[in-house]
Design a protein that fits this description.
The protein has three helices and five strands; from the N terminus they run βααββββα. It is flat.
Length: 153
Amino acid sequence: VLNNVAYEPSRENLLGAVGIANMMTRPGDTAAAVGDGDLAVVSTSFLVRLMDGASHTAISEYLAMTETSITTQCEFRIENVIGIGIDLNATATVVALDENEGRELLVFDCDIYHGTMRVAHGMVQREIVEKMRYSAKVAALSVMAQDVGSDSE
């Protein structure tokens, strides 16, 4: 046991980091409401948001003030359907860190539960990016897209 030693979050400590996200399902979170189905069951996009929230939370203390992370891949399987007014709890655990060609990619093992019932299980991959550089890239792409749109009018 180390006494009087401050914990310093670092990339070396990332593996095993866990994040959580909780949400209660609302009428606007259903497949019928968002248009990815016609039933009053939780939308697939809602489940993705919940896993994204948990994965973002897992690593937020490990990032510099100038960094953030973006989702680059997501795969999951829905095991149980959920209706309106249900509390859902998501966990995301960092299971891999891949530093390749100047990119830092993190892989998360994710679960969503209602009580003890697993609703979904999957994987989220996030890339650590510089906030300013990424924001500038998004802005430039938006300007280019607007220019292309105005050329076709």
